[in-house]
Every structure is written in C-alpha cells, then in structure tokens.
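Pair request: fold both.
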Amino acid sequence: MYVSARERLILDVLIDREEEMTVKDLADGIDVSVRTIHRDLKGIEQIIEAYDLSLVKKAGVGVQLVGSKNKRDELKMAMSHLSYNEYTPDERQTMLLCALLESVEPVKLVSLANDLRVTIATVSNDLTKIEKALEPFQLTVVRRRGYGVELEGSEAAKRRAMRKIISEHVNEVDFLTLVKESIQKKSKDPTDSISERLLGLVEKKKLFVVEKVVKEINAGLPYPVADSAYIGLVVHLALAIERIERGGTIQMDHAYFNQLKAAPEFDIAREMTEKLQAVFQMDIPEAEVGYITMHLQGAKLRQDKEYVLEESSFQVALKAKGLIHFVESKLGVGLLENQSLFQGLVVHLKPAMYRIHQKMGIANPLLERIQTDYGELFSVVREAAQHVFPSVDIPDEEIGYLVMHFGSALPGAKPPVPLHAYIICSTGIGTSKMLAARLQQEVPELASVQNISVFELNSMKADGNLVISTIPLPNFDHDHIVVSPMLTKEDLTKVHAYLRRHSAAPVRVTAPVSKPPVRSFSQIKESIQTIGRYTDALQSVLEQLSVRHSEKKEVDDVLKEACENLDSIRSEQTVVQAIQEREKLSGIGIPGTKLAFFHAKHPDVLKPSLTICKVKVPIVLAGMDRQPMESDTLLIMLAPDPYHAEGLEVLSTISSILIESDDSIELFQSGREEEVKEYTASKLEAFLYEKITELRSV
C-alpha cells in the first residue's frame, strides 16, 4: 500500500473524527488548497476500501470517514508500519535537523537531498526554515559552496535542540514501546518513522539501560515527576552519554555549579552519574552532574501540594499571588481565594521558571489550540506575566501552561454524582487540572477524578471506572477514551456515548440524592489519623503564635530573643544558626512590603511555630529580589526536622496567608496581636474544614 505524505495527513485528521468536517477546514488544517483536498480524497477512497471503510461526502456539510472502530484501528496500525517514501514538509525539516545534529562534520547538500528523495533546491529552502527555528538555541546553520552544511554552536545548545525536537515529535507511548519492546526484537531492519528516527539520535540499548537507572533512582525521590519530565530526563542522560562518547564536552559556570551543590537534587544526580559510569565504563564530567541536577529541579511535580516553607518556594508563591491578583483585576472574577489555583501555580512555576532561567527549553504541543480556544485569557495571562516578571522573557509555550491553570479555575463547578474517572495526562499538572475541571463541569456524573501516570497504567484497577487519556494506549486492555486535553465537542460526544453504553440506567444530567460511598475500616482509620496530624500541627502553631515588640537593632539579636521566648526549642543556638544558614542561601525580605520571612527546619525544633517581631528601627537586609530593603516586621517560622507532610502543608498554608492580599500584608505589618491571631485562626479553621471534607470524599 502506498500512501502519500498529504494523504497521511488527511487520514490522520479524519480517522479519529466522529463528525463531518468541511473540505475547507480540512484544507486549512494541513495548509493546502480545497482543490488539492478534492484530488487527494479520490486516492484515499481507494486506500480505505481495503479496510471496509468509506468516505461519505455531503454537499454543504462536509466529509466523514465511516466504518467500525476495529477497521479504523487496523488502518491506523497499517499506516504506522508503512515505510515512508515521501515526507511532509515538517517531517522533512525534522529529518534534516536530525542529520545535522548527529553529524560531527559537514554534510553535502546532494547527500541530504538523496536521503530525503527531494531536490537540492527543496533542501536549501528547508534549511532556511530550520535556521529560524534554531535561533532560540543560539545555533546557526553554516553553508559553504564545496564544503557542505553544518551546525555551529555549543554542545549544550545542540543537546537542548535535540531534546526539544524529541519532545515535540515523540509521545510517551512511542517512547515506552521503544524502550520496553525494541530491545527484544531480533530484527535489525531500518525504519523511516519520524519517532524512531528521532529516538535514533541515541542507541536503543543506551535508552534501555538509562531508563532502568532512572527508574531505580526515581523510586527513591521524595516527590513524583511528570511522565514527560521523566522521559525528558532519560533522553537527556542518553544523549549526554552518546555525545560524551563522541567527544562532546559541556561546560558550566563554576559559581553556579557550587550553588547547585547545595541543592538536595545534587546528591541524587551524583548517584545517577555513578551508576551510569559503572554501567558504561566511562568517566562522566562533573558538569554533567550539575545539568542532571537542573533537570531534576525542573521536573518536580507534587500533585496538589507544594510546601512554601521549602527553599525558594516562598518567592514563587509571591509571584503566583501576583499573577492571580492581576488576572482577577483584569477579568473581574474572584480568584484570590482559590487555593487550588494558587497551589497549582506554585507547583508549576518553580520548575518552569528554573527551566526558563537556565534556557532548558519548553515544549507545549497544545499551544495553538490554547490560543484559539482561550484567546482573551491568553492575552490577559501574557500581560500578567510581563507585569509580574518584567525582566524575564517568558515564551508563549509557558504562557499556554499558565492559561491552563487559570482556565481550570474559571468554570463554575457543578454538583457531582458518584462515578469515578482516571485521567492519564502526561504533560503535567496544569493540563490535567484543566481537563479535570472541564470534565466535571461538562459531565456532572463524575464525582471524582484521579490523575495517574502512564507508568502506573498496568498496575491500576480500572474495572468499573471511566478511563480517559490524552495519549493513545495501544497495549491497554480496558475500554478507554482518548481525548484532547482541551476537551473538544467531539470529545464530549465520545464521553457521553461511552456513559450511555456502559450505564444500565439512563445518564442523568442532574445529580440525584445519593448515599455517600461505603468506606472500609482501614480507610476511615487512615483519614482520622491524617486529620489528627493536621489538627496537632494547627494546635501547636496557634499555641505558639505571638506578636513581639523588640528593642534590638541587629537581625541576629532579634532572632536570638525570639527563639529564647519559645518553649518548643531544645537549643536556641543551633536553631538560630539554622535560620542564619537559610538566610545565606537567598534574600528573605518580601519586595514591596516591610516584611522579612525567616524560616528553618531543625531537629532541635520540637513543635512548629510562627513568631512576628516588630522592631522600632527598620533593619536593612536583602530582599527576595536580591535588592537591599528595609524591614520592621520579622516573621519567624520554625518546623521540626523531620516533620510529617500534613504539618508541612499547614506551614505552607500559613505562608500563603501572609501574602494573600494587600490587607493581609498590612495586618501582619501592623503588629496588632489580637487581630493577627483572630485572622490566622479563622483561616486555619477554614483550611481544616476543607481538609476534612476532602478526606471524607476519598
């Protein structure tokens, strides 16, 4: 069977579509003329006839591919195994880029043209387009007559470009299939598929071994990583080993490397490096440990919790609040009280800003759809980002992810009825939250939605539950629905059709009065224990909460005095020292306020506490923006180390309360003890009720 590149594009659009599509929309979608589409449809009719499929054309309505799901799947499978004789322009440019990135010496134009079965003029035109795409990576295409073509730029830039094109063209299923299955295949036949060609930038065996090492280390991480970030790390490491073997060396600023050494991820990165050195019998430069650390820092995914007490998260929380405040004022919608939005933004922003600052590249395959469906919100969020991050050039891909967070917070929730759904959404928390919010808004039958990883797929119990995925799941035995993360009308039609087929009773639009689901003894016991830990932490903080007025003029003296007045500390000296060590890592003044936020975790802290110290003479210290500022209110938050997750979440909530609004900042700066205590207690009481409700619904 021969299928041209354009015919493949048309079939890709029609094969999963349940409704008619106008020829004009089809033409616009693949950037050709209506006349070209009509001509190609004749060839497509001959192709699909062998699969008992047909094209139904209705004047004024559009064209539709008609036939059973099994036959559609057969056609899909056949197309995926085709040997490509012709590439689309996008595929061709990707193949060209692969060839240039792989090569260690100039490549002749005629050789590239022969490989791609096109003219030299076409290759030359493609190279011009590639040049523009490579500008953000600081890579240039060098073309000289009689010399050939090569890429000029640093090793780090080439690796960033490799990771970017792999992330854009290879989905998680392609990756997993290659890593898990291709090693066992005896056949060495070359393949022309784009996914395999891209992953061919590294040896398959290297991918397999690296993935095994990352999987072992990943199991010991204190936080999960998104599927896409996990795969990005595997690809990064495999590329690194491949490039080191070819003599490619990567450099890192010495001062910045020393800064990374203090990060908890550095030890994990070193462990990975040591394992890989042992497996591949090679020396891996220390700079690579730094780059792996950056990847780990840029891969954090903490579901719905981010402990603001930890490291630089408080600074990120300030930025998140700034974004929410700006968008709220522009749209006239109440968002500042939305804790889910705030927590989701903090979770997302910390690694995202890290990736932006380190020029690690951001891919967002949904960008075009987001800009189309959420045009106004996209503009507002972009304006908000420019306002909150004036000195940072934030790419549209990142704006798109921020829009997902705000988009999931804007629709009003409807009362659900008991039906559970699993969502497999590999691109991260923003995408999955938006999809969950849209589903619960449009499908009120969903009582709960649980996000799971594609790696957890085979171990989960899907019986009796709705499984919705944003990526194809070819080896998954249970019924499931594949939808766009943006949840189109066609997707909703599929979801409702699924519910009708799998429900004994008709699907009801309004929620009936129903009994709460029966929970097991162990579930109830675990919930009560969790509530107990929340309550214990809240009680400790409220008991220790105090507003003090100090005559001291030096920061260290104020800290020492505050710690001496706490009965929840074993040794004031070691705790003050821990606070001072934390202060050295980054600024502690909150820009635009008179507040300074000191915090530390230490074994000599017996119970969590919050102390507010008012000083008569403002103290000059470094702000979180690294600029000097005056502070007359020192907030000192302490926690035991180690401490349970519930306690850390309580402290995280208190941190967000401090900067919740201009009014809250003014209150904490005022030093009015009774008002501060009442405000904090009421907020923490609301937090506890929210947690109890959340735990009872699990």
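--- second member of the pair ---
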Amino acid sequence: MDKARIEKLHELEEKLDYRFTDINLLNLAFFHSSYGNENKSYKDISNERLEFLGDSVLDLIVSDFLYNSKSSLKEGAMTKIRSQMVCEKSFSNMAKYLELGKYLMMGHGEFISGGSEKPSVLADTFEAVFGAIYLDSGYESAFKIVENKFKSLFIAEIETKSSFIDYKTMLQENNQKNSRDKLKYKIVKEEGPDHDKKFYVDVYEGNLVIGSGFGSSKKHAEQDAARNALIKLRVINE
C-alpha cells in the first residue's frame, strides 16, 4: 500500500476516532469485487468476507441498542424493528455520512456506472468496515464507534420504528403460532362528521372478541384493536 493510500485511510480513521492496529484490514474493506475482475493480481481479493462478518456485528450492536433502550418491547417487536434497521437504507445513509464511497477500490466499469454512490454498494462497504474493526480489536471497539458516531441516529430510528409497529402483522403471526381460529376485524361503530369521523373496531379470534380499538380511519382503528389484543394476550406490554 502506497503512502498516499495510507494517508487517505488515516483521514477515515480520524472520522471514526479509531486507529487501526492493522490498517490493511481497513484497506481490504474497500475492495469491491469488480476491482479484482479488472486487475488480475487482485482477482481473489474483495471485501465480501468482511461484509459477511460486519453484517453480524452490526446486527448484534443494533440488538444491544434495542434491548437497552426500549425495555417495554418484547422479542417479537424487537425482531421486527431490528429487521427494519439492519438494512440497506440505514447502512447506506451511515456510509454517506462517513463518505465511504470515496475510499472504494472498484473496476472502471462499475465506477463509471456510479457504483461508488449505489446504496447497495455503500451499505455493503459499511458492513465491511465494521467487520474490519471487529477483527482488528473486537466487538467493544465496534460498539463504541457506533455509540459515539451514530447513537442519536440509532435512538431516533428506534423511536420512529417503535412508534409505527405493525400490530396487525404481529397479531397475525401470534395467531398462526397459537390458534386454529382465524382473525377477523369488524367495524362496530362510526361517529362524527365526514371530515372528523371516528371508527370503532373489534378484532375476533374465531367468535371471541380479543381486542377493541378506535381511530380516525379504519386502518388506524384496526391497528389499535390489534395492539390492545396483543396487550391482553401479554405479547407486548402496555
């Protein structure tokens, strides 16, 4: 690795507030597979294995944040929120914040097609960087970097996602696991003028009402009924 490349990677280390023991690991995190396709001496070198590892590391970090910041959420809700956070959109946004695209090593064809700005490539690179950090000094270092750089973003994401949990899907999944009776939603009352209508809904499991709710639309009322059913069934806390 030449001096110019090392200096460029030191610039990223400053952004991360982390100094690699083995800077070759960080360098490897930026080798897109297309680079080896066009440079035969690098044909077996890519960041894909680091990406695989980093995906698991970040999955655990997000799980840590969820477990420690939202004690009211049960396992099913945490799983659903985590799946929405450990995703291309979230990771590509974090990669853009760190400007990871400018450190990428990729083939000419991939580069001129805008590869260094593709959300999928950026998300994969973000994972690879955290795979490299994990190999360099372990989980605690990776966690601290996320905590220092992205904690407010992660907490905001958790708050947003937990505010918009799909309770109907959660109830459906619980029903499929634990009951032979099908769910159905029934509007029991509508009140108010058209511009300010309120809907009241009961959700049935077979012939038994297991939850009731209301809202400004049928959709919101059904979600509220599903949420109250989940509370009654002790799947989630109130």
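Observation on the second member. The chain has two domains: 3-163, 167-233.
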